[in-house]
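User: Show me an example of a complex going from sequences to structure tokens.

Assistant: Sure. Here are the input components:
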Amino acid sequence: MSTTDLSTTAAMSAIVPARSAGRPKSTVLRDLKERFILFLLVLCGAITIGITLLIVIILAQQAAGFFSPGITDIQGHVYDLSLTDFLFDLQWNPLIGSERHFGIWPLVVGTFQVTIVAMIIAIPLGLMVAIWLSEYASPRVRAVVKPLIEIIAGIPTVVFGFFALTFVTPLLQSVVHPAIAWLNGSSLWLSLFDPIGFRIEIFNVLAAGICVGIMCIPIVTSLSEDALRAVPRALREGSYGLGASRFETAVKVVFPAALSGIVAACLLSFARAVGETMIVAIAAGLNPPEIHRGVGTVFAVNEPTQTMTGFMVSVFFGDMQAHTIEYQSVYAVGMTLFVITLGITLVGALIRRRFRQQYE
Amino acid sequence: MPQYTPSSRSARRVKNTAFQAACIVAACVAVVVLVTLLVAILAQGAPRLSWEFISSATSSNAAETGIGPAMVGSIMILFICALSAIPLGVATAILLEEYQPKARWLRVLHGFVQNNITNLAGVPSIVYGILGFTVFVILFNAAGSPNDPWLDFGQDFYHEYPGAGGQSFFVTAEEDSPLVPAELGSDRPFYLTLEDARLGVNPADVVVAAPGDLEAIRKQVEDRLYEINSTMKAALREATVDRALQIDEATADALAGQMLTPFKDVLVADYDEMKALAAASLLDMDGLGPVQQLAPRRALRQQLIEAEFSAAGLQNTIIAGTEPLRKDLKHWYYVQVPFGKGVLAGGLTLMLVILPIIIVSSQEAIRAVSGEMRNGVLALGGTKWQAIEKVVLPSAIPGICTGTILALSRAIGEAAPILLIGYVTVQSAPDHLMGAFAALPLQIFHWTSEPDKDFRDAAAAGIIVLLIVLFSFNAIAVFIRQKTQNKH
């Protein structure tokens, strides 16, 4: 290695082994070509860094515009927003009406309503399928079931949105409404709380959440299965040798050994659910939960909600004008979304790295 | 320590079986949901599926709407996405896998690029949409705007003169050339189409006439045709039974007479000729519903106008003093900066979405190539790039292809990143790189948002087409994977 070279090509010479003295002269051209190609490759790598930087810069700069004094709405009203309004106001009503509110929490709560319903579906189902595929299923069964699960991962989210709106919601309505009607007849139910008027609305948290959850199943399954299969055979054999059943081996030996990978898989699917756009834009509605009215609204899964992504879509399809508060609010919400998903991704990477068990 | 009594052993066995059963149920639930989804969509969309649906343009009429332009738009953005993402992704993968630096600070940088790609894969696609919009469509608002670009080339400029007879005539012009009103006795060549003007062929035989008399005649003719139009509407309403026009030769003739007779004395054109024209096109409209009648009715009206104007001597006439309009013809290679909402911006935005996926899958494919083969080249005195070019890439290509095809199939289905860039009401496929486009997932989203059930059916039919495309992509990927697995 020639590490004494401090010219601008130091970066390259550090990577490419320097030309040894014994090589014939004709290699000069070849070395030039090598360096040129490396330069191109480094350029491509730099672009990926550039993309991240651009995301951060654009979101930060435009979100700063949202908080700059004197920003106007589409009708010309002037606003003076501060970060405090954004973080501590409990209402989100940026688009219409005389009294506008710009507190991010309703959208965050809306996002987590959908995401938590999704995780309640995706994590147990996905993990059980993963354990079954890795610990129980025969190779032949696995060869059939695994691609089927992966097909779910290939279905576009707009299709799940359509499914949520035109199938899942009507299905929920046709199951829940008669059940409520039947329960209304029993006095026990009435003594617990008053269920009259409980209806699954056309746009609701539940259907959107269920479909986001279904979308997340293959992510949980395939990553967890990878983690489970990476656990060495010796551990399983030791467990069987001590007389443990398959269930005990899977749950008490293999599962804990693969836990870091499984947690990372769950976090990744969580991040995907938070950033999921089309399903919620189609099936969840346009009204963020009115959390200032009480905690109950947080749990109203039968009612419409709006997520951060859903809000962005609704503005995209409206009348967007640069430098108005409506337009800038998209960037502020986008920034929040980006920070949340990035945080989850980083925590996932950290867990995988910190708690990974090395079996060599 | 648990006590292993015989009863607890059977309890453990039960537990094991119960857990296995629960797992199988979980797997079945996932598969059943998938099957339900496919069947539900197939049942709703299949009746709507036809060649007409696939090829025709979108329409506000749910029964007539189609996915033609959206299909072409999707293919175009996918093509641009593939062209940009594959070289960039594979190159980055090669850099990360094959060029492991030795210097400490470079190793840190290398690790940073690697971690960064993991993070990029976790960024929600709608954030990429915002990024693509800000960078490609408006270029940070830094230079010009999509409507008034900072740089553009590849278009021809024309001035369009509205003729007295309702036609348009074009003359070639420069971007900023002043709008000259038509002058009496002008010998400028006027052309009937932009294409003729561009090539400078078939100049139209145009007369620039003085205003005044001509204006008066024109006004009279137009008033008359307006009235004919309303009698036509009334006549058609009469012949419509059960929302469909029922007409035979005799009634067509009678209706044409009914339409035109009140104007027999004032028409400039030959009455019999006009009547025959009207009867023929009315006969063509047999069996059409009220909405479907609109287009042929408009065509008939246009024919009558043209016959009347040419009889009045207004055909190929521009009234002196008519102000032209600016018009441009963009070639297929038309380029503008910022790109504006067009195919190029859409394709590049999708590239951002799938780039991390392509990089990661290419890295895996490259990592799977054995080190011995690589070292063999180096031992023979080959350079690093020669080893990559001649040995690593050829063996990694099947894996790269599989990953890339799967990534592209993700790109076709993505709607969120191009929400800001695509349109849903585009009537024709874009004819240049900056042209407005529709895409299949956007179209499906738009139709799903409509409360009308017919539009939902159209959305389901669109989904079927989208899924067929996706599944064939996946099938190709699986085929390549199996084929190469067998070979090794």
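The lines above are the inputs; the final block is the predicted structure for all two components together. Chain B has a mean pLDDT of 85.
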